[in-house]
Amino acid sequence: MFKFLYVILRNLFRAPYMIPRMRYEADHPEKFTEEERYRLVRHAITLMMRSGKIETECFGQENLPKDQGYVMYPNHQGKYDALGIMISHPTPCSLVMDKAKSNTILVSEFVDLVQGKRLEKDNVRQGMQIILEVSEDVKNGMKYILFPEGGYEFNNKNKVCDFKAGSFKCAVRAKAPIVPVVLIDSYKVFNTFHLGSVKTQVHFLPPLYYEDYKDLKTNQIAEVVKERIEQKMNEITGSAAAQDA
C-alpha cells in the first residue's frame, strides 16, 4: 500500500497531461487504434515501474496462441497483477474487473483504454451478460485477463486460492484456448508495506486448447488450471528458497 501511494506521489507532476490524454483516447476509440491505446497503457505502466523501482521478468511468451483470441487465467495477488501481465503481453489484451474497484481515477482510464468489462459481483444477470460479451469478443480474436479467484487478500504472498468454476464459462462458450498465467511476488509491489525495489515474475504456461478440455466440466477445468499454476509456482519458489538457504 505504501508503495502504491509512493508511486502516485512520484508521478503527480505527470497527472495533468497523462490522465487527460488517457481519458481522451479511451473516450474516442474511433480515433485511436487498439494498438495505439494499448501502447499508451504500457507507456503509463512503464513510468510507474521506473518511479517505483519495479522490475517484471516475463517467461513463456512463446506459449501464447497465435492468430486467435484466448483467455488468460492468472493467480491473483494484488493491484499490480493486471499491470504486470500487460507489460509482459506484447499484443493488446483486455480484462474483466470488479466494477466497485474500477471507477477510481487512473484505474478507470486503464480499464477504458483496453475496453475492459466491469463485473458487478452480486448481480448474476449482469455477470451472465459479461460472460456472453467476453465470449463473443474472444471468438473475434480478442485476448482477455480474467482472475478466477475473484479477489485477493492483502499480502497473501505466493498463495493460490480456490478458482471459481464460473470464470471459465466464457472460454468454454468461445471454444477458446485457456492460458494459465503464474504471477510470482506480484503482491510485493502494492500489497505490502515494502518500499524498496521489487522484482516480480510473469509466466505464461502452455495453453489448454478446446480439444484438451471439451469433455471436462468447468469445475474440473478450474482444478486443472489451478494445479498447473501451483505446480509452476512451487517449482520456482522452491528453487528460490533452496538458493537462499
UniProtKB/TrEMBL annotation:
<feature type="domain" description="Phospholipid/glycerol acyltransferase">
    <location>
        <begin position="70"/>
        <end position="186"/>
    </location>
</feature>
<dbReference type="Pfam" id="PF01553">
    <property type="entry name" value="Acyltransferase"/>
</dbReference>
<protein>
    <submittedName>
        <fullName>1-acyl-sn-glycerol-3-phosphate acyltransferase</fullName>
    </submittedName>
</protein>
<dbReference type="GO" id="GO:0016746">
    <property type="term" value="F:acyltransferase activity"/>
</dbReference>
<dbReference type="InterPro" id="IPR002123">
    <property type="entry name" value="Plipid/glycerol_acylTrfase"/>
</dbReference>
<keyword id="KW-0012">Acyltransferase</keyword>
<keyword id="KW-0808">Transferase</keyword>
